[in-house]
């Protein structure tokens, strides 16, 4: 135990916070790291694949993997620099089929079996995502909400295939897999019939979720969005749409991506409304710079506020924490490491918060004390506890940039 840690432990102790307990909690809350930051969502189907669906990785930092071997080398390096409990979130375009091209609607668990071995070896869980973009069947900007039956059928089959793969992950690894469904469907210009696509989307989702899948192994989430590039006027799968879908059907949980709201909207402020109804939540932590820019997540106020809300509501059992960003303007492996470590720092900061002291001041109506303490607590030595956490997990602390090979 470092001497700095001993001091930090004492300082927190004065506020009734047990740093050891916080470190134990850290080990029970996995962070799902998105596999696609490492290669701008290229995947293994086609190394020259073009990203479509209104999302974009900008920048051209050197070092993008050009083979599966290179990809795994980067993945190993990334995982080694992120301390503690982890999942890896895969997309369906990362199958390991030994060079055989499998259509997305025919993917099966065996096409991802080597990932299960990899996860087992690393001691991590797996999450999954259907890939309803970068594909010719994303026709005129529509997938599950398409007016064309053929298009909807294809993506329904894909959704079902992905849930089965998710279930196989959960069953093999003993931790539920969250399979997150996001579709880009929408319209660039003013849409007159806004109801039709949403009715078709409900029907498609119902078909996907009609397949019985064991919820102990696979949980489905549905991710809304305010708009994407080229679909600025209308998005069928909005936040409200999926919130209603989740609540009325109980078939899926809502995924909130911090980049998918109006810039002044706070995702942290939404959470307790879901917890009040016992609703589970999937999170895509990202950093929106003026829009859904998918910048690397950082431990800024927005991220810390999300963790504090979960902590203050005692709702970690209802939340799945995940990352979603892809920035190619900085080193891709380091980008993943920075995002994952930052979110874990925000989480630890919240777990170390003397919440009880604040709650007491508030309940007593002492609003001055509440604000004074909130401001003082910002400067408590969470960084020292984070270094201790890294050390205990055999990962470099705050000097990782200096120490990395
Ligand atoms: C898109 C959504 C979605 C994707 C990933 C790649 O706006 O955020 O989660 O980023 O599935
Ligand atoms: Zn997302």
How would you describe this protein?
This protein has 405 residues and is α/β, with parallel strands linked by helices. It has 2 domains: 1-17 and 354-405, no CATH class; 28-351, Divalent-metal-dependent TIM barrel enzymes (TIM Barrel, Alpha-Beta Barrel). It is 42% helix and 10% strand. The chain has 14 helices and 10 strands. It has helices at 3-14, 19-26, 68-79, 113-122, 149-173, 195-210, 239-249, 267-275, 301-312, 332-351, 355-363, 367-377, 382-392, 400-403, and strands at residues 31-34, 86-89, 125-127, 177-181, 186-187, 218-223, 234-235, 253-257, 281-285, 319-323. Strands 3-2-1-10-9-8-6-4 form an 8-stranded parallel sheet. A two-stranded antiparallel ribbon has the order 5-7. α2 crosses α10 (332-351) and α5 (149-173) crosses α6 (195-210). The protein is globular and about 65 Å long. The two termini are 25 Å apart. The relative contact order is 0.15. It binds L-rhamnitol and zinc ion. L-rhamnitol binds next to loops.
């Amino acid at each position: 135990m470092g001497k700095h840690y001993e001091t930090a432990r004492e300082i927190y102790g004065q506020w009734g916070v047990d740093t050891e307990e916080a470190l134990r909690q850290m080990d029970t809350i996995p962070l799902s790291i998105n596999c696609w930051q490492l290669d701008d969502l290229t995947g293994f189907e086609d190394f020259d694949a073009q990203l479509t669906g209104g999302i974009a990785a900008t920048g051209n930092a050197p070092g993008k993997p050009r083979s599966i071997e290179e990809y795994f080398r980067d993945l190993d390096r990334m995982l080694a620099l992120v301390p503690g409990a982890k999942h890896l979130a895969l997309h369906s375009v990362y199958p390991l089929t030994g060079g055989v091209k499998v259509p997305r609607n025919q993917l099966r668990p065996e096409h991802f079996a080597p990932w299960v071995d990899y996860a087992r070896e690393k001691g991590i869980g797996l999450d999954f995502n259907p890939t309803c973009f970068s594909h010719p069947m994303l026709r005129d900007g529509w997938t599950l909400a398409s007016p064309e039956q053929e298009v909807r059928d294809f993506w329904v089959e894909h959704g079902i295939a992905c849930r089965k793969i998710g279930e196989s992950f959960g069953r093999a690894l003993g931790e539920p897999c969250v399979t997150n469904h996001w579709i880009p469907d929408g319209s660039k210009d003013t849409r007159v019939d806004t109801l039709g696509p949403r009715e078709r989307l409900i029907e498609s989702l119902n078909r996907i979720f009609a397949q019985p899948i064991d919820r102990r192994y696979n949980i489905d989430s549905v991710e809304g969005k305010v708009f994407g590039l080229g679909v600025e006027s209308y998005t069928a799968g909005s936040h409200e749409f999926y919130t209603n879908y989740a609540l009325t059907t109980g078939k899926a949980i809502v995924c909130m991506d911090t980049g998918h709201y109006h810039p002044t909207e706070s995702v942290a402020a939404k959470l307790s409304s879901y917890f009040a109804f016992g609703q589970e939540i999937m999170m895509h932590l990202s950093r929106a710079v003026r829009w859904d820019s998918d910048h690397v997540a950082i431990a800024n106020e927005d991220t810390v506020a999300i963790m504090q809300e979960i902590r203050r509501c005692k709702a970690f059992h209802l939340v799945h924490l995940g990352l979603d960003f892809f920035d190619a303007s900085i080193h891709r492996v380091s980008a993943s490491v920075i995002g994952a470590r930052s979110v874990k720092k925000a989480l630890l900061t919240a777990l170390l918060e003397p919440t009880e002291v604040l709650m007491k001041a508030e309940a007593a109506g002492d609003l001055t004390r509440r604000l004074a303490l909130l401001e003082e607590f910002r400067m408590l030595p969470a960084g020292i506890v984070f270094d201790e956490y890294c050390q205990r997990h055999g990962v470099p602390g705050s000097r990782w940039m200096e120490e990395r090979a």
